[in-house]
Amino acid sequence: MPMVDIAGKDYEVDEEGYLIDLSQWNEDVAKYMAVEEKVELTDSHWEVVNFLREYYAEYQIAPAVRVLTKAIGKKLGPDKGNNKYLYELFPYGPAKQACKIAGLPKPTGCI
Amino acid sequence: MSDMDDMDEGSGIVKKFMFLNRKAPHGTVYALEGLEVVLITAAFDQDVSMVFTDDGVYQLLKGIDTKGIEVKDFSKTYRALDGYDIEKLYVDQASMDARGLTEDDLIVDVTTLSVAEMANLMAEQDVVISF
After folding, report:
1. How many Å separate Cα B47 from the centre of its chain?
2. Is B1 within a domain?
3. What is the CATH number of the domain that holds B50?
4. Would B117 be classed as within a structural domain?
5. From chain B, which residues contact A within 8 Å (Cβ)?
6. Quick one: which of A62, A101, B14, B76 is 20 to 30 A from B84 by CA?
7. Cα(first)–Cα(last) distance of chain A, in Å?
8. pLDDT single digits (tens) A42-59
9. How many residue pairs bridge chain A and chain B with CB atoms within 8 Å of each other?
10. Which residue range is the domain that position A83 belongs to?
11. Domains in chain B: how many in total?
12. A18 phi and psi, to 5 degrees?
């Protein structure tokens, strides 16, 4: 497995750059992953990232994009729980990119 | 279903998939891998039923603690199935009885079926996959 150096600490990632050990995640990791994904983190991005971390803690999986969209709609309202909003934040796939930044594995059912 | 509804579904063909879960949750990869296949099948908008029978009923036990065996506790994931629109969860009555379990011991709502009811349900499926 490849290793990356983030703020002077080594982290193990998979071949697509997803963090291997979820418990190692911190804000430095999120910022590093965001740069890799060419995403500039705003409060709106953090809201989704934190939502994903809560979702994972509760269900132990990274949700598929359809499920993520629905769950965000339930929690944060319909103006956020839609594809347009989420794809504007994470143009290359909200589940895929936001999961990476949140230190989660690639979503199941994400091909 | 009208033609209009069919068109709304896109070109996708929807089949009835039943996933039979027969094995204890840990010790083999069957339960976890089976669950992944179920989630992927649901992501393709298929009609999914899950059946838990034999030691497979243990997959749904409340209060599983995997710390001692150092593997991930994926039992919480069964509670996410609802979000994937997987609502048809069945357990086999005889398997539950043999292990002294009732629906109250399980982390999700299930329907308990007799062998005959299970056979009928199985006969309705397009695809049955066993893990």
Report:
1. 12
2. no
3. 3.40.1260.10
4. yes
5. 36, 39-40, 42-44, 72-74, 76-77, 79-80, 83-84
6. A101
7. 21
8. 999 999 999 999 999 999
9. 37
10. 3-101
11. 1
12. -80, 140
The closest alpha carbon to B44, from B78, B9, B20, belongs to: B9
CATH code of the domain covering residue A83: 1.10.10.370
- The pLDDT of residue A95 is 82
Domain total for chain A? Answer: 1
Whether A111 is in a domain gets the answer no
| Residues from A in contact with B at Cβ < 8 Å | 58-61, 63-64, 66-67, 70-71, 108-109
Residue B45 lies in a domain: yes
Q: DSSP letters along chain B, please?
A: --HHHHHHTTT----EEEEEE-S-SSSSSHHHHHHHHHHHHHHTT-EEEEEE-GGGGGGGBTT---GGGT---GGGGGGGGGGGT--EEEEEHHHHHHTT--GGGBSS--EEE-HHHHHHHHHT-SEEEE-
State how far the Cα of B58 lies from the Cα of B56, in Å rounded to an integer: 5
Express each pLDDT in A71-84 by its tens digit.
999 999 999 999 99
Region for B27 from its dihedrals, namely left if φ exceeds 0, alpha if ψ lies in -120 to 50, beta otherwise: left
Query: Does residue B3 lie in a domain region?
Result: no
